Amino acid sequence: MDDKQFVKEIANIDENFAGWYTDVVTKTELVDYGPVKGTMVIRPYGYAIWENIQKELDARFKAAGSQNAYFPLLIPMSYFTKEAEHVEGFAPEVAVVTHAGGAKLEEPLAIRPTSETIIGTMYAKWIQSYRDLPVIMNQWCNVMRWEKTTRPFLRTSEFLWQEGHTVHATEEEAMEETLKMLNVYKEFAENVLAIPVLTGRKTEKEKFAGALATFGMEAMMKDGKSLQAGTSHYMGQNFAKSFEIKYLDKDGTLKYGYTTSWGVSTRLIGAIIMAHGDERGLVLPPKVAPIQVIIIPVAAHKGGVNEKADEIENLLKEQGFKVKTDKRDMTPGRKFNEWEMKGVPVRIEIGPRDIENGVAMVCRRDTFEKTTVKLTELCETVKTLLDEIQNNMLSKAKIARDSHIVEADSLDGILKGVDGQNFVKAGWCGCRECEDKIKEYAQATARIIDSDAKEGEVCAVCGKPAKHKVIFARAY
RNA sequence: CGGGGUAUGGCGCAGUUGGUAGCGCGCUUGUCUGGGGGGCAAGAGGCCGUGAGUUCAAGUCUCGCUACUCCGACCA
Prior knowledge:
Layout: H1 3-9, H2 17-27, E1 31-33, E2 40-42, H3 44-63, E3 67-68, E4 74-76, H4 77-80, H5 84-90, E5 95-100, E6 103-111, H6 116-126, E7 135-144, E8 158-168, H7 171-191, E9 197-201, E10 213-220, E11 226-236, H8 238-243, E12 246-248, E13 254-256, E14 258-265, H9 267-276, E15 293-297, H10 305-318, E16 323-325, H11 332-341, E17 346-350, H12 352-357, E18 359-364, E19 370-374, H13 378-402, E20 405-408, H14 411-419, E21 423-428, H15 432-442, E22 445-452, E23 468-473
Parallel strand pairs: 3-7, 15-16, 15-17, 20-21
Antiparallel strand pairs: 1-2, 4-6, 5-6, 7-8, 8-14, 9-10, 10-11, 11-14, 12-13, 17-18, 18-19, 21-23, 22-23
Helix pairs in contact: 3-7, 14-15
The structure holds one RNA strand.
């Protein structure tokens, strides 16, 4: 399918959202498929988005007292068996190296699916005293999980992420850290990615293998499905006990630490695509867009057009904007469409007529609004426009999401809700059976525990008194 | 792991009752164009996934294999 056909076929993105997503991802040159099933090659345009995400997150982590470090890719299999729930949860999806150096290895090596085990082992060596706490480290790396079905960015065998791992002296402090990082993610998602998220505790069924509590942030995609966009786990002393992370406290007794971990991945790029994309392709929030302003010279064969475009480019670059001038020998219309598909927030068209009048055409990606701007006011306009687009994208997404949250008090109500592409808030008694019934009946899972139930509220499944109000949704 | 589908040029596809492959896009060259996916002209590019079988003859029919994909189950 060529691009022209593509645009036609995605005219109604809700019709086949998954297909729309896959096409956008490949056609905008974000990724290519790797030779190994389920792996993706992140191309420069896609990777640049990731770099922007990294930069913004890293600043936040450091402000929260975290330091970056790096731990090995290969983890001895025996490390995994130390924490029973953890190994049970991850064993099915761990890829294992059995041979190296031309011989079979004595002990198989796991390719990290997550690094709690190896980091825990190292922390145990490093931590002696309460004076060593807290330990707050983060690593940017790749991990591998052999999933059965994969989709670029959303679920790939190998993906890039950051994983923060912390150790604290007390339960309170560790829980505080868990929630603090969850809020860092929330603030980041909303202010940088322009994606509103719901945060809250996960149910037992949905929590991380080995954690005492998992908190997550869930974002609503354009088709009403939910995407888990980040998680923060409170491990209690589970891992500390398995890996002997102990410290000598002020009172002279040896105590186990309390650990947490938190992570977000390249899945966030998928979230951006599915939360903001429209029938013409990607729409990137200015704060993560690899190119914020694309300049398109029109009738460039005429004298002075390319020179003017260069002049504008340099002017904007001096102001710190990410700018590119597209001088390829193609018709302008074609370039318009291409850069729209790639989600560039602002487009500037400059041709002989404009130069004569001392103006340029400026078009914004989020609303397609096109205005004539005096060249002398261009920098100002672009600056305001980028801010406006960033804000508009968030408020648009918020309105879209809030209008798709409904309440239900029965299984049928939940089914009807998710069929209508909604998040459904419902009472839940807290038992696994009812949760499973909802999954079976409505293909919806508990995304987060929204709040404690009030007096008189009942479980939507069994009718017994509800423990919590939970957000149910179909999920990616 | 269960059920369905697909495999033909870089991409998307067509190929009739068997007769040695065609279309659109892209690509190359030239030219006119250029403010929303341009026009004209000339080109390049294919062991039809793979192994066997039926036949004078297989992209086409039969069987096996492999890969990919969709829907379930499983999961960030």
